[in-house]
């Protein structure tokens, strides 16, 4: 069990809504990451973003945990919601707020609450919060 | 054509699919949209529906044929 894998698991389990994406909300590096981000923003979800680009191992460990092969990946309350297509589809159907409520309970909404957790490779020490 | 390969894989994974199409979304033969409507999806969450599509397309996902994949799944109920 790698340390990086443990850290990813910890983020999934402790953050209300996690978006593993290419880039960050400020510097989005992929259209699908942007689609998922916009859907989450659209309902005022609190968003914790993790950039998977700094180290290919982040994506490898993440996919081991989730069994999901593509990026982005959205987790709510420790559970995989899906990738961009599912996130957008639930948003368009108006079902995303219900999913957030189901996992996070009353008070899940936190419009504009966005932060970034920076994960680096195995040699870079523990993750730090940068935004 | 990659879309033909994808459709063959989808048809074989979902033999009772009402619809199983692959579209080249960008004209560059690497960004695809697949649409699958099958009774196999009835009662499954979207996550589990998409997992089945990823399983069906595991080879082209692994060998780099698919650079980006958009998935739309529907049950028949």
Tell me about this structure:
- The complex is a heterodimer of chains A (131) and B (77).
- Chain A is an alpha/beta fold.
- Chain A contains five helices and six strands, in the order αβαβαββααββ.
- In chain A, strands 4-3-1-2-5-6 form a six-stranded mixed β-sheet, sandwiched between helices.
- In chain A, helix 1 packs across helix 3 (56-66) and helix 2 (31-42) runs parallel beside helix 4.
- The model of chain A has no long low-confidence stretch (mean pLDDT 92).
- Chain B is an alpha+beta fold and 77 residues long.
- In chain B, 36% of the residues lie in helices and 26% in strands.
- Chain B has helices at residues 2-13, 46-56, 58-62; strands at 19-24, 31-37, 68-74.
- Chain B has a three-stranded mixed β-sheet.
- In chain B, strand 1 and strand 2 (31-37) form a beta hairpin.
Provide the descriptors you would attach to this structure in a database record.
heterodimer, A: 131 residues, alpha/beta, 6-stranded mixed beta sheet, 5 helices, 40% helix, 19% strand, globular, B: 77 residues, alpha+beta, 3-stranded mixed beta sheet, 3 strands, 36% helix
Helix and strand layout, with pairings?
The complex is a heterodimer of chains A (131) and B (77).
Chain A: H1 3-14, E1 17-21, H2 31-42, E2 47-51, H3 56-66, E3 73-76, E4 79-82, H4 84-92, H5 96-104, E5 114-118, E6 128-129
Chain B: H1 2-13, E1 19-24, E2 31-37, H2 46-56, H3 58-62, E3 68-74
Parallel strand pairs in B: 2-3
Antiparallel strand pairs in B: 1-2
Q: Residue share in helices of chain B?
A: 25-40%
Number of helices of chain B: 3
> What is the helix content of chain A?
40-55%
Strand order of the largest sheet of chain A: 4-3-1-2-5-6
- Main sheet makeup of chain B: 3 strands, mixed
Distance between the termini of chain A: 28 Å
Our estimate of the beta-strand percent of chain B is: 25-35%
| Unreliable residue runs of chain B | none
Count of DSSP-assigned helices of chain A: 5
Main sheet properties of chain A: 6 strands, mixed
Q: Assign an overall shape of chain B.
A: globular
The largest contact between protein chains, plus residue counts on each side, is:
A-B, 15 and 12 residues
Estimated radius of gyration of chain B:
12 Å
What is the first-to-last residue Cα distance of chain B? 32 Å
Helix and strand succession of chain B?
Answer: HEEHHE
| Secondary-structure element pattern of chain A, one letter each | HEHEHEEHHEE
